[in-house]
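To whoever picks this up:

The parser on our side crashed when reading a file containing two proteins. I've narrowed it down to the boundary between the first structure block and the second sequence. Both blocks are reproduced below exactly, byte for byte. First block:
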Amino acid sequence: MNYKYAFLPIGSISYKGIIPSLMTFVNKEQLLNEKLWSKFVKVFKYHEDNDDLAWRCEYWGKMMRGACLCYQYQNNQQLYKVLEKTVKDILNTQGSLGRISSYTVKNEFQGWDMWGRKYVITGLLHFLEITKDQKLKTKIIKALKKHTDYIIKHIGKNKINITKTSNIWLGVNSASILEPIVSLYKLTHEKRYLEFAKYIVSTGGVNKGNLIKDANNDKLLPYQYVENKAYETMSFFEGVLELAIVTKNHRLLKTAINFFDKVTRSEISIIGNAGSEGEKFSHAAINQTKKPREFMQETCVVTTYMRVMAKLNLLTGEEKYYERFSTAALNCFLGSINTNHNPAKDYFKKKTLNHYLPFDSYSPLVNDYRGLSTGGLQYFKDGSFYGCCASIGSASIGLMALTYIIQNKHEIIFNDYYDNAAISTKDFKANIESNYIQNGKVKIKVKKNSKQLLFRIPSWSKHPSAIIDKKLIKVKPGTYLSVNKSVHNITFDFKPSIQTHHLNHMSAFNYGQFTLGIDEESNPKLKLEQLTANKLILNKIKPTKSSLLSFTSNNELIFKDYSSLGKNYNKRLTVWIKDN
């Protein structure tokens, strides 16, 4: 049991449109900031989480993972040099015992210590995938083994129970170290790492109840599990998925896929994210029309969901997984990007902070503001701050670039078409000309090819058509169209149209894969509570500078794609509109 597909080689594809603008933004605002990387390394050097048992320790590894994914698309040597420097810096924080931890030995294995150690492994493993320096590779692997061996020495059967190394979320945050442990086993093939991974699964992931049993119980949905924190629970099951693949355990694979199918069915909202109440599973498929007590739809959750859907698409080659990925990416995730540099907020201290972060943490759906709170907010000794969602966002950008087109020895899959693109590998060259967002039309010219080509036909397309080398053919929504090696010109017309969704006496609208909504920023005289969907008709107009899509209604209101709504954080937006 192995992954069926893989990303294209580094630097094989060049985009024009959404992806390069995102890369430019995240490089400037985050990834090339050496002072920021240095600040994250100091967390380990000076054990900055020791006094409050906090999670500053996650920032470095999360951002390193995202940076490496972005590099795999960009092949940006300036970025590589920055990443290489910070990797060397964090290796220098490793003590004689092998620990890379933001906690002292006296205070270790509590709070978020294991969570932070997990992200150290994660970050270093991702850098290993892009470095060509063999001496540095050897040094990293040696450091990873020492770091992990120290954990195994103290955690396990007849030792400290991994789920007891945190009193938060029943210890599932600690148990989520499972995924990088499996990756370390895949790298080294050393049996002790596989045995440790199996031990973690044997605990059920929590110190009360058993998440594996909950996932196998067809009567339970994720919001009903013994622990229902969305981000950490999905991270644990991502590890379960990886262990199942490595061990070829079909029963465990079924457990993991069953869990993520339940998440999709019961939790994923119209914009592609989970959790309609705070950061927990909350039966959001039903409850997304209710305004939460605080905030909803965490960015860490959408990035984690996107990561797993991308993996399942690579593993199985099934179209539905990319469809889920793309809905989350083009709606919830794009909406989280703080392009206007709005200042962050400390929700619990009820104050606006003196700086901005590149990603917002929560995505509203009903009569609410963006930027309500900074998820995972922690302060540093110099008074500055950062957050968990700000650290994780670059991974989504990297994944958008890398999953657009995937391949194996015999096939190339075109998963998406929202950007113009030029693809060039050793045995394949092609260009994509796209007006996919506006009218669903795509032209692909294949210049060189030795593989079978598969093209995603989106499930939202009700009456798609394709012309293959001047021949009109029938295509089926929600599938991949397989085309032989000799084809040169492919034209698609996916014919996006307005679709209306009804839930709990409220309505929402989609245009193709894009969720639409309305905000008070574009409609200054509007009071959202007075708006009704009754007899509402939307007509597409030219997009503005601040939107991908723009529509005018029959009562002269402006609707836009979700990612473009409420971007100044001082005006409310809504997706769900009461029927009467």
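<<boundary where parser fails>>
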Amino acid sequence: MKQTLGKIREKLGPLLWIVLAVLLMILNLGVNTAHAEGLTPAENVQITSCAINGEQVQVTAVNYGGVLANDSQFYLFELAPYEDSIGTRTDYAATAPKGTEAAFAIPLNLGSASSRLYSKFAVAVWDGEQYVQVSHPVYITNPEVVAKNQEPFKTPLTKKGLLIETSMLDDAFHLGVKHVIVNFPFQFILGTGIDYEYEGKTYHFNKDLLDEYDKIVKNFTAKDLSVTAVILNSWNDATPDLYYPGVQQTAGINYYMFNASTKAGYEDIKAIASFLAEHYGGTGNGKVSNWIIGNEINNQEWNYIGPMDINQYVQEYERAFRVFYTAIKSTSANDRVYFSTDYNWNHEANGTTKYNAKDIIDTFQSRILAGGPIDWNLAYHPYSVPLTEPEFWDDGATGLVTWSETSPIVNIGNLSVLTDYFQKPEMLTASGQVRHIILSEQGFTSTSATRGECEELQAAAIAYAYYIVDSNPYIDAFIMSRQIDAPSEAQLSASFGLYRCDMNQPDRIVPTTMKKSYEVYRNIDKSTKTLEATKFAKEILGIEHWYDVIPDFRWKGLEKRTQN
């Protein structure tokens, strides 16, 4: 080498040799200080697959950039959900030769303290001084393959559902509902009485609380009802790790965002979620099939973390959602996992604590695609506008309900805006399927804020709404709120129940008399009774046929035959 350099020096002469030497020094300095000066490495890597295969995690990637010659390897780093970048770390998990493509394989270590089930992975290069991340982190996308419970999802016979008072289960069975909601208080599940070992650590759960929920879920399952669990995180001073760092109990806030941004919070979430999915896997304590993570996440009144722009907010929610998703799907493969929004599609956002539902959905999907596609689903709440009036069919007069995806509000009246949006190519699952949508909360008042009692209008609204949903193939469930009026809601003209309540007992939900809507809802999905039960509503709506206002009306053929 020294002889070669000498010959070059002789041919170039002293001056040109000095120039060449300086150029070489500059180039070398540029390579060695690229990271220090914030320069972008030549390599630009996209992870194209991150999946479990047998007992390994296999990661494949494509390099869309160049190949810097100072090192011949790509380096795969493992990150925990609460980590966002590799920083100055040096503990890479695997290497692959540099090129236009790269493939890595590392042990999954399932069930152990070193399990990689929840990890995300990033590719880095060595810049001469340290490792520089050149890819976006990507999570494992197929946790369901390791689940012991591979039972198929059991599709209910109808879409009819209800928020049920547990003391009136027989009444709900008489109604013929097939979907029910159970709200789980996440912050009280940790406790004593049940020991649960998960990934090398023992957790302690509240046996007294879970015994009560076991009775509820077991009874629902025994009646062949599809159970949807809503996981809610209200305040408990005894569980500080469940809340985002710095968040305090705040007046006017009902629930708080789940914390996966710290090691302690992440470990609690994954253990509780895995335990619940296993406990309610259908082997003795009943079966939960659908899991909704939080409530109406586009409004921080129901999912508080503190003022944030939408990108940071969704980043923190996605971080926690993925932990729940992985825990649930790796336990019970065919359960479905959802997040929920209210009906404010493009309405009432302030950019810091309230966000448009459409923007939340779009931002969430964008992050999911970047971080590894998973089959998330939507639980939507399409109340009428305002909630204190039952008619949704004239909500267009408010100017808030249109038939465009720019509509301020999407509710029952323009529901196809939502389902059309979810059929767009960019919203489909990785396998090209339309995501599951359930309407997990909606109701129609029998007490108008302006006209007083309006039972007939409530019953007509329920009939029309159910027919719209039942005729839309992209909606899986119509779960009404509620079986019995709640006094706190009824006094605000939100009397959503099929029964009136005893207003003299404001702290309890005690049924008194049945409303007209009860029999309508009972018969709405019965072919021999449905049209007769809803005949009264046509006059209220000013229509002759249901198929005139619902083009794909499920009972269209029956309605035509009945009228001939």
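After patching the parser it read the second block fine. The mean pLDDT is 93. The radius of gyration is 29 Å.
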